[in-house]
Amino acid sequence: MIITTRKQFTIEEYHRLIELGFFTADERLELIRGDIITMSPKRTAHSVCNSLLFGELYVLLKDKAVVRGQEPILIPPNSEPEPDVVIAQKREDNYLSSHPFPSEILLLIEIADSTLIFDRDVKLPLYAEAGIMDFWIVNLRDKQLETYTQPYQLSKGKYNYRSQQIYLPDDIINIPHFTNISFVLKPFFM
How many domains does the chain have? Predict the structure, then answer.
């Protein structure tokens, strides 16, 4: 009988593999709970929504926060996901010394069509466990925005968000931490 063991990587090991050229430049990868995951190809609606949303948030928040699009965040010891949009606190070095940590993230957004189940079942608990206070899923399948706040531990090793709310395309939403800044959702749902 052959026994196999799955190798779980730390962030440092993952970065070392990148430095050594283990992956090609065009590979889209994420480190999730120690596993190196190939990211799903983006469909047209996902790309358009991402571009529009990033552009809108950048214009609304450019002097108030850092808006990052499809860039890594760090969740030690073994996760480096690449959310579609992150609004992070301003930092003097503009995150040159490291990607944002959960304590620096004001809002994290995933845009989901083919990735909806993965975003809900894998990423949502990861973000809740990391203490990311505000998480949104732009659900392109059902044409709705799902907002999640107040992370908590449901049971040992299981995390979720206490508050979950659905917004429809005609709704106007306030941006967490910037309650005086809002926008209409309709343009993001084709």
Answer: 1
Helices (H) then strands (E): counts for the chain: 4, 10
Query: Is there a contact between 49 and 186 (Cβ–Cβ < 8 Å)?
Result: no
pLDDT in tens, 15-67: 999 999 999 878 899 999 999 999 988 889 999 999 999 999 999 998 999 99
- Name the amino acid, one letter, at 145: L
Q: What is the pLDDT of residues 137-170, one digit of tens each?
A: 999 999 999 999 999 998 888 999 999 999 999 9
CA distance 58 to 44: 21
State which residues form the domain around 151.
Answer: 42-188
Query: What is the Rg, in whole angstroms, of the alpha carbon atoms belonging to the chain?
Result: 17
Residue 25 domain-assigned (yes or no)? no
Please check whether residue 120 lies inside any domain of the structure. yes
> Reduced to 3 states, what is the DSSP secondary structure of residue 95?
coil
Model's pTM, two decimal places?
Answer: 0.93
**Before 77, cis peptide (omega within 30)?**
yes
